[in-house]
Predict the structure of Uptake hydrogenase small subunit.
Amino acid sequence: MSDNETVLSNEHTPLFANESGPIKEVHAFWLAGMSCDGCSIAAVGAKNPSVEQLIHQQIPGLPKIILHHPVLAVEAGHRFMEPYYKAVKGELGATYVVLYEGSVADEQIAKDTGGYFSAMGMDDLGDGKWRPYPTADMLDDLAPGAAAVIAVGTCASWGGVPAAVGNVTGSMGVMDFLGEDYRSALGLPVVNIPGCSPIGDNITETITAVLMFLAGVGPLPEFDELGRPAWMFNETVHRGCPRAGFYEEGVFAEEYGKPECLVELGCWGPVVQCNIARRGALGHNGGCMNVGGICIGCTMPGFPDAFAPFYKAPPGKFISGTASRMVGSFIRPLRKISQRKGNMTNRWLKTEHIPSGWGHVEAPGVVMKTIHYFYKKIQSSGTPYHPSGSNQQRKLQAKSRSAMSDAIQRSGKRAIEAEPVSSTAKELG
Ligand code: SF4
Ligand code: SF4
């Protein structure tokens, strides 16, 4: 028996898994555990694609998504909960995915005292007894039949703030809760979209990619060893940071509100895997260091404890910051010289005068001109392709002229050779 057949033998196997036709609709069950609802807010702010595009089937090939979300739903009470109960009992008769927000509390701790940590709907205990249905239990019940389980946010992915040192809830991520052997009805381990909150577009784009794969119209998206979408999380935030040039030149901000690198104010960007500096927080706008904030590592499994205390420079900054300062103190003046040259027109170089009405600009003196002269020599050495290499330019032009005349001669010869054939063709015509 193949692995795939093992998966399909699951008692909750959704209908589509046994059918060859394309999936037309997917139910998306949103569950909230120990959460602040920030991930929901981030998701509804997404633009590429937006939640509206997903639920109105505006993306070619993507099945229609029927979203069941406790905050966004129009229905309430039993009418809202009914599809959840049906899915739990294996009676939904349709494909579904589970989107879990917040960390999964150890509900046994709460049960021992007769309570619960986070619940939605009511669980029938028999004999007319009911109890609030913990979302952790519902996750356990829904996960085997789900086409995919997607952990939305750092709390759901790794545990996050509710699982920080000293918590009393025994909170953990979905991956910890379901175990490493967990596979969805279609054979997927838990997909993780970390971030506190994640970028909305990261959420909707991942859901889209997974659903396109499940619908058979897209490739399996690439995930890293922790189930993160690799194309979003395989680079550090530092590599895409607009302040990285300052870091490289060893220029660091000493207070907030300055444009330089924030590492000395506590930024962990050089080691944190996150795409917010490139993608922005919302509609390509905002995002931590783009708006002056440090990175506190909110996408990482170690968050928050591994990055606390926040606002204290990471220990590694001493070595890397000192190295950047040393290199930067040498590189910065050299770059200034090149920049000075780039800020001159050919005319100004000749006239040795910059006619700006905005302020006095000093023309390069003898020292600068000498440096520029040698700089230019080095810049143009080894290649004839530079504007001031007039001898080489002439040689190049002669070469291209002779290549052109060779080509003309060859095409003339071909035309003469082809003529008898065309005349014969004409005669025949
Ligand atoms: S602000 Fe942070 S992420 Fe940006 S360059 Fe400095 S250390 Fe790197
Ligand atoms: S840059 Fe850091 S703090 Fe900001 S979202 Fe990314 S991981 Fe979180």
Summary: The first helix runs from residue 3 to 8.
